[in-house]
Write a structure and sequence with these properties.
The protein is an alpha/beta fold and 426 residues long. It has one domain: Alpha/Beta hydrolase fold, catalytic domain (Rossmann fold), CATH 3.40.50.1820. Helix content is 41%, strand content 13%. Helix 4 packs across helix 12 and helix 5 packs antiparallel against helix 6.
Length: 426
């Protein structure tokens, strides 16, 4: 698909590979038979776009750098990813100028805004150089058009504070008595957590930001252990299902470590694939990286026309503060752009899938009128957990395709058909 858009997919958690997206959630194939083989995924996102599944930062899965090189902060990873994208477009020049989109999940809510910022900044440098007839050798314009953030960690100050509300009064409460002692204790922890987060924001102190992660994770998220963190409807047998609660994650390692797979990928046969790298995770934690506000990096991009979609499964219980549906909704409501007033005034509308005509969630948006998919949109996905493309594959594909082709998610099935027939999706 030479003319199809490019989509960069990033999985979350600074230690984990995008193989989860590739072989478990939305890639063309899904790992099967305990890792012996893969099967065709009929709901793959690459049906209408060219998806790049990128393992980053350095040392996650098979990714590597010169000996002694390490990465422990998003501002460093964004430079690496930008360099990678420039190399891809240089090598595959037929994609230069095609729409470029980013979809990121979980900790990707921190990664993606950083990557978007450097792309947007360098694009402006290229425009300025062109206006002055100054050469910018080696740099290509990346046609950034839209971003999707799924159950992401983006503004910890707001998202941490939402956790007791979700756990005690949400659609699937973890505690059955909001007036009981467990919920009351959780709510008392929020002010201290937010004071620490604000200090991290204000002073950018590494120590203060580390304290945010240590305190908020243990005092607000810690008491919730015992659930499957990715989907409250599911239980986790740690011995059978592994640390990430899905046996398919173990299958991915089995499949990827086959000698035949390594040969095709050009991997040193002595290297072992691991879905997650705890060393990378610790390096990011010890810099307090996950306590920073990534939402503040986005307003200029949105005002310049990059479209933003935030989606969240309403059964997500991810206990490292990324996923909670309520927190994602709260930070979008307070997102400081020219669309904020419209967003706060408008009410959520039902979202019905194009293929099945089934109600699968709600849509809250601003900008674009009724002719496009809007400038800022928040989507709640019913009966989905942390990994929406896995839990609700049909809904996830419908969401991506409509956003990609700028079709409002509020349209019903017949309206979508008429919209596509008229060619307005281009």
């Amino acid at each position: 698909m030479d003319t199809a858009p490019l989509l960069l997919w990033l999985n979350g958690n600074p230690r984990c590979s995008s193989s989860t997206g590739l072989l478990f959630e939305l890639g063309p194939c899904a790992v099967a038979k305990k890792g012996v083989n893969v099967t065709y995924n009929e709901h793959s996102w690459n049906t209408h776009t060219n998806v790049i599944f990128l393992d980053q930062p350095v040392d996650v899965s098979f990714s590597y750098a010169d000996e002694g090189t390490s990465v422990n902060m998003s501002p460093v990873t964004r430079k690496d990813v930008y360099t990678f994208l420039e190399l891809v477009l240089t090598r595959f020049s037929k994609y230069v100028g095609t729409p470029f989109d980013i979809a990121a999940e979980s900790y990707g809510g921190t990664y993606a805004p950083n990557i978007m910022l450097v792309i947007h900044t360098e694009n402006k440098v290229l425009v300025a150089a062109h206006a002055l007839n100054v050469a910018a050798p080696g740099l290509l314009h990346i046609n950034l058009t839209l971003v999707l953030l799924g159950n992401g960690l983006t503004d910890p100050y707001i998202q941490h504070a939402s956790i007791p509300d979700w756990v005690c009064e949400g659609p699937y409460p973890g505690y059955d008595d909001p007036d009981g002692p467990k919920c009351q204790v959780l709510w008392t922890k929020v002010p201290t957590c937010q004071r620490l987060v604000k200090s991290c924001y204000d002073f950018n102190s590494c120590l203060m930001c580390i304290l945010v992660i240590l305190y908020c994770n243990s005092q607000i998220m810690g008491p919730l252990l015992g659930y499957n963190p990715y989907n409250i409807h599911k239980r986790c047998d740690w011995q059978k299902d592994g640390d990430l609660c899905y046996k398919q994650m173990l299958w991915i390692e089995t499949w990827t470590n086959q000698p035949s797979v390594k040969r095709v990928l050009g991997i040193d046969p002595t290297w072992d694939f691991g879905s997650c790298n705890m060393g990378v995770n610790q390096a990011f934690t010890m810099q307090g990286n996950g306590a920073h506000n990534s939402a503040v990096l986005l307003p200029d991009l949105i005002e310049d026309g990059v479209r933003l979609l935030i989606y969240a499964g309403n059964a997500d219980m991810m206990n490292i503060d990324e996923g909670y549906m309520q927190g994602n909704k709260w930070w979008v409501e307070q997102f400081d752009t020219c669309f904020q007033k419209e967003f706060t005034v408008k009410k959520a509308a039902p979202w019905v899938t194009t293929e099945m005509g089934t109600l699968v969630g709600t849509v809250h948006s601003a900008g674009g009128g009724n002719e496009t998919a809007s400038n800022i949109t928040f989507v709640t996905v019913h009966e989905a957990g942390h990994m929406v493309p896995y839990d609700q594959p049909k809904a996830g594909l419908d969401l991506m395709m409509r956003w990609l082709f700028n079709i409002p998610l509020t349209l019903n099935v017949s309206e979508v058909a008429a919209h596509m027939h008229s060619g307005e999706q281009v």
